[in-house]
Amino acid sequence: MSESIHEACGVFAISGNEEASHHTYLGLYALQHRGQESAGIVTAEGEQPRAHIGMGLVADVFDESTMEKLKGDRAIGHVRYSTTGSSDLVNAQPILCEYRRGWVAVAHNGNLINTMSLRCDLEAKGSIFRTTTDSEILIHLLARSPHTDFLKALEDSLLQLRGAYSMVIMNDQYVIGLRDPLGIRPLSLGKLKDAYIFCSETNALEIIGAEYIRTVEPGEMVIISKDRIESRFFAVSPKKAQCVFELVYFARPDSHVFGQEVHPARENLGRVLYRECPTEADAVIPIPDSSVCSALGYALESGIALQQGIIRSHYIGRTFIEPSQSIRDFGAKIKYSPVRAVLNGKRIIVVDDSIVRGTTMRKIVKMLRKAGAAEIHLRIASPVWIEPCFYGIDTPHRNKLIGATHNLEEIKKHLRVDSLYYLSIEGLLKAVGGTHEKFCTACFSGNYPLQWNGHVGAEADKKIVDAEKKLVRVDLEPVEGVLSEY
Fold first, then answer.
1. Residue 358 carries which DSSP code?
2. DSSP letters of 111-179?
3. Given this model, what pLDDT does residue 330 score?
4. Cα angle value 168/10/77 (rounded, 5°)
5. How far apart are CA 342 and CA 349, in angstroms?
6. Which of 460, 365, 373 minimizes the C-alpha distance to 420?
7. What is the CA radius of gyration of the chain?
8. Are 37 and 87 contacting, i.e. CB atoms less than 8 angstroms apart?
């Protein structure tokens, strides 16, 4: 769907279990929502690594024969949606490389903002890159580090990176989980008997029966070796910039991220949304599935019944054959369908987690009107999205974000709803129990937590944001046939 936004990826690692590859497979299966383009697992048995990486969903990439070859008591895994680097097998992760000190495998969730400058500098010194991903930067920095101790070399390399990175790393000695100093992307630590686990979300622990221990802290490396577990801080920041959109949309409702449960946070979003803009109606309708928790909170706070007015198909494959133009809005119709018995003649509150371009929402509103909805009041459980993300979310350019180029009244008219309200930034932070010093809200506020002054690659990286800021207002694209059908 053209409206969709995507997380960069999900990572999983385990050390100290003879079924490491199978546990990693299940963990990646639980994290599938974080990336559907490619999947990969690297295992280690003794000092020898084994890898299997492919394009597609976890269940398609791995089968019994491939899993049988992935022997070992340690493993790291990755599911990917590309934000830096094309969607191609060469860019799939984990990245496994041999270099002068042995081998190392890296799986990365996030996005580096000084990739261009670091890569140009490394290539000028003779480095040859085999992928177009930012994650490979770390491999080259490790190879060039003067430190003979791997952990010292890793710390030295990490301090040259800027941006979002939650990583799991494995070599012949260690399995390591780490987060960038601002903690932009989540990473949790768990345990299964004597084995330790890292994962992007705790639902990956639930699927294998492991227990949650804690979140890996910003700027922390948790190092697991054969006989010990150790924590080191390679950097300390006076503030955090955890991605608040993980709690709004990306993480699964049954997960913990950033040390808190997702479902209660999303329910609070709906409660605060109603308090900020009370509205009378007959039913609260969520846009399934990501808005169900927020819609529940809105219904509980308002006393208005929560109804399943929209059904979402869960059986859409990666591709499908589209019919001719005679079937309008096919993309929306194959994904959503209305429940006329719930909608006909009713005043409805439609709750969604966000609006990006507005194209899909306009088609959904049209569908609800045709199903008989008397009034449609749209409530968004996050603030107006006005800026792109540079920290691991695949977002359109600024001039494609409807909230960046049009005011509230223009958006309301374009979507053809009776009323429209977005949750305020302060309401968002209140709902998730945070502050501006704890969460990144750059996509809603334009206040990016990483500044481009006095750091490696400052000029090259500042151009990215400057170019986005210069993009001008564009007209909303018309949807054929809408005007004549209202």
1. S
2. EESSHHHHHHHHHHTT---SSSSTTHHHHHHHHH-S-SSHHHHHHHHHTT--EEEEEEEEESS-EEEEE
3. 63
4. 50
5. 12
6. 365
7. 23
8. yes
333 to 214, 286, 369: CA distances (angstroms): 42, 16, 14
Distances (CA, A) of 254 to 107, 272, 350: 23, 21, 23
Q: Where are the alpha helices (DSSP H) in 252-371?
A: 262-276, 292-302, 330-335, 340-343, 359-370
Q: How many domains does the chain have?
A: 2
- Whole-number pLDDT of residue 323: 55
State pLDDT tens for residues 262-297: 999 999 999 999 999 999 999 999 999 889 999 999
Cα 354 from chain centroid (whole Å): 14
DSSP-assigned states of every residue in 44-111: EETTEEEEEEEES-HHHH--HHHHHH--SSEEEEEEE--SSS-SSGGG-SSEEEEETTEEEEEEEEEE
Mean pLDDT of the chain: 88
| Residue 83 near residue 111, CB atoms below 8 Å | yes
Enzyme catalytic residues: 9
Identify the segments of the chain with pLDDT beneath 50. Answer: 1-3, 84, 318-320, 452-486
* Cβ–Cβ < 8 Å for 186, 246: yes
Which residue, 238, 273, 304, sits at the end of a domain?
Answer: 238
Position 450 scores a pLDDT of: 85
Do 107 and 171 touch, CB atoms closer than 8 A?
no
- Domain hosting 95: range is 8-238
Give domain status of residue 219, yes or no.
yes
Is the omega angle on the peptide bond into residue 388 within 30 degrees of 0, that is, cis? no
Distance (Å, whole) CA 392 – CA 200: 13
- Residue 253 in any domain: the answer is no
Question: Quick one: CA dihedral 113, 119, 125, 131, positive or negative?
Answer: positive
The two three-digit tokens of residue 412, written as one number: 């309301």
Regarding whether 296 and 158 lie in a shared domain, the answer is no
CB atoms within 10 A of CB 1: 14
